[in-house]
Design a protein that fits this description.
Elements lengths: L2 E5 L3 H13 L5 E6 L4 E2 L4 H5 L9 E2 L1 H5 L5 E4 L2 E5 L4 E4 L2 E4 L2 E4 L4 E2 L7 H4 E2 L4 H13 L3 E7 L6 H16 L6 E7 L9 H14 L3 E3 L4 E5 L2 E4 L4 E3 L2 E5 L2 E2 L2 H5 L23 E3 L12 H19 L12 E6 L5 E6 L8 E6 L1 H16 L9
Bound molecules: flavin-adenine dinucleotide (FAD).
């Protein structure tokens, strides 16, 4: 009998827990420890910001998701992992494990943007969404600036840019508005590879959206954003996707690699401890941190844990990819696939328009209806 402890019930943790429940015979114990917060479908946040959905429409209670299962749920924060002693330390107690799966996401480092608290907005937390909804509703014209800083995925920024353009046009305030998009990456949507990059850049150009690539936001001041290369953009509305950071307790627990993210091998096993795995945004890897890869990683980890326990005969490797649907406002969207960031050849936008929009809505509904028991991957 093995005791598997999972930490975190976001995209990675939820999918990993369902997969392990299905794969592992009943005598293996599964314990899921997560903060006492609901799960929110973040892919729907831009829709919520524009008033198309409500936050409560996209929430799941972790306790309710697993209450009929044999998984034991502990709602509390992990503060440390004693990896040598195979124990997880939480605010509520100490939990020994045979195997540990960490799916704890990242910390949004808004404090690294001076002036953000006074002049910035974002789309990362439920609290920010409410503020954003009000600002959009009250918008009567001016300059909007939207952009991404180091490590963050530009996707929600693209969606907010296109969706705002669409909403302002419908409200007849677009002619009094100017929209700018910036990124610290060398190209707009650099991880998308040549075809997807060109698609996003052309869509912005067609809509008259101004773009600024390879710039690092330094500071926000009253009605102006300052960049590292001396660029200053006057702005009446600034929406920022912040820098990401790994939670400090990961490095303190001896699990950190570059920039403190969890160091893992191709099978998502810790480089330092053979009974620890990690998935999702918290791992040290190259590429945009996305729910798709957290879920893909969760499936790989569930499989490899079964190998360790003696239930399968081979290990799987994690092959990240960009697979996403970019909502562009109204019934418009684009389904994107790419793997050039990891040495592949794929960079495609095979589905656009209302079919792609349907794919986005279907994914959101599917995840919520199955309560994260995602079966279409692997
Ligand atoms: C606005 C927005 C839109 C997005 N849209 C898309 C999209 O369309 N497609 C896509 O693929 N990706 C999208 N993403 C990215 C996606 O949401 C993340 O990549 C994904 O959430 C990462 O999953 P995760 O399991 O690693 O972490 P998370 O989902 O962040 O989950 C982390 C979990 O760990 C818990 N936790 C953290 N610290 C502790 C602790 N110390 N103790 C106990 N529990 C802890 C948290 O409470 C949470 O349950 C979007 C993100 C945002 C913000």
């Amino acid at each position: 009998m093995s005791r598997i402890v999972l930490v975190g019930a976001g995209f990675g943790g939820m999918v990993a827990c369902h997969s392990l429940l299905r794969k592992l015979p009943g005598h293996h114990e599964i314990l899921l420890i997560t903060e006492n917060k609901p799960f929110y479908m973040k892919a729907a946040y831009p829709m919520i910001a524009l008033g198309e959905l409500r936050l409560e429409d996209v929430a799941l209670s972790v306790g309710e998701v697993f209450h009929r299962s044999r998984a034991q749920i502990i709602l509390g924060r992990v503060t440390h992992v004693d990896a040598d002693g195979s124990r997880v330390i939480t605010e509520r107690g100490v939990y020994p494990y045979d195997y540990l799966v960490l799916a704890v996401g990242v910390r949004y480092a808004f404090e690294r943007i001076p002036g953000f608290d006074r002049y910035g907005q974002s789309v990362k937390t439920p609290e920010q969404l409410l503020h954003l909804q009000q600002s959009i509703r009250r918008w009567e014209g001016g300059r909007l600036l939207i952009g991404a800083l180091e490590n963050s995925c530009e996707g929600p920024g693209f969606e907010m840019t296109f969706k705002l353009h669409h909403a302002l046009k419908r409200r007849h305030v677009l002619s009094r508005s100017e929209i700018h998009f910036f990124t610290d990456k060398s190209e707009i949507f650099q991880p998308g590879g040549p075809t997807a990059q060109a698609y996003v850049q052309n869509q912005m150009k067609d809509r008259g959206i101004h773009t600024h690539a390879g710039v690092q936001l330094q500071e926000l001041r009253h009605h102006v954003a300052l960049f590292d290369n001396g660029l200053q953009i006057p702005a009446d509305f600034v929406l920022v996707l912040p820098p990401y950071e790994a939670p400090q307790w990961i490095a303190n627990s001896g699990l950190g690699g570059a920039q403190g993210y969890i160091a893992v091998d191709h099978g998502l096993r810790s480089r330092f401890f053979s009974n620890i795995y990690a998935v999702g945004d918290a791992i040290d890897w190259k590429g945009p941190k996305m729910a798709h890869n957290a879920m893909l990683g969760a499936k790989v980890v569930a499989h490899n844990l079964c190998y360790d326990i003696g239930l399968t005969t081979y290990r799987k490797s994690f092959h990240p990819e960009v697979v996403c649907v970019m909502d562009m406002g109204g019934r418009d969207a684009a389904y994107i696939e790419a793997d050039t960031e990891w040495g592949g050849q794929r960079s495609r936008v095979p589905v656009t328009g209302s079919t792609a929009k349907f794919m986005k809505e279907s994914f959101i509904r599917y995840f919520l209806q199955t309560k994260g028991d995602v079966r279409y991957i692997l």
